[in-house]
Amino acid sequence: MAEVDIAETVRGSQSADDEGHPSAGLSGPGPWRRGPVLTACALLLGLLLLLHGEVTDWAGLGSLVETFLPWFGLFIPVLVAGALWRRSASSAVALLLPVTVWWSLFGGLPGGPTDQAGDLMVVSHNVAVENPDPAGTARDLAASGADLLALQELTDQTKASYEKELAKTYPHYAEEGTVGLWSKLPLSGTRPVEPPVGKAQQDGIPVQPLRALRTTVATEEGPLTVYVAHLGSVRVMPRGGFWTESRDADATKLAEAVAAERSKRVLVLGDFNGTLDDRAFDGLTSQLRSSQDVAGDGFGFSWPAKFPVARIDQILVRGVEPTSAWLLPRTGSDHRPVAARISW
């Protein structure tokens, strides 16, 4: 009787194996079939990084994704851990896509300060309306040794403090509305940045000028054209999503002004309220280079000052060579000052 029972058990086990039933499933699926969800997530992440420019900008979604694009790399180690835990070969292979794309976008950024040598040091800083100590901020910026100091968010109440504290170090000063440039070198031809001729109106409505100025710096190597700009704000609207219309319109105006610029040497400094990965700045990045991308210290995130997550303060160049770019210590502002050295 026992022999019959054993034989029946063996036959049942073999039958289950042949039909792919319980006994065959004891070992689970193979490494290429494990973790289908992880594999799909890895592929989607890679495609998002690769094709971020194709993400719809409905309700500002595309702009929001591109603003924080580097941070999507944080999903990679999570997916790697999941692939190791599941021992999924398919997930591991799929992860090659996001790793490769992220590295091509951001992995080449320098990890530390580069050569500090250069012919001119420039600093840009949104000093913030709510800054509790404008005089202290001015002294800190003057102590940086910058030759050119571009400030944004100046107010009628704070201008006097900056003018007083910076006058000794920077004898030359240009101002237009809420933006200003302090310089150790002579300035000339300062004017507001107006819409290009023929585009002063849109649909019969006057186009608002930028919060920006253009001026010329007299250097030993010849004239250097400098733009200082504070582009429109962005807002997260409860019903409208990520609102960027004002910022995007200003970016277009600034790009058109730079395109019409005849000077061979150009600096564009200021608070862009967006990162250069954002499609809104394609018109600028096609003409200018980011000092941070060329010679910077890591990502150079500048906002918010307490825990920076995005670089929205920019130093862009044309016709000169950035040799280094870095962040200055915090001031009383909610932005970190950004600095760069350039050579001819």
UniProtKB/TrEMBL annotation:
Residue spans crossing the bilayer: 37-56, 68-85, 92-111
Entry keywords, A to Z: Membrane, Transmembrane, Transmembrane helix
Chain segments carrying region Disordered: 1-29
Keyword Electron transport carried by entry: no
GO molecular function, one term: catalytic activity
Domain Endonuclease/exonuclease/phosphatase: 124-335
Name of the protein: Membrane protein
Organism: Streptomyces toyocaensis
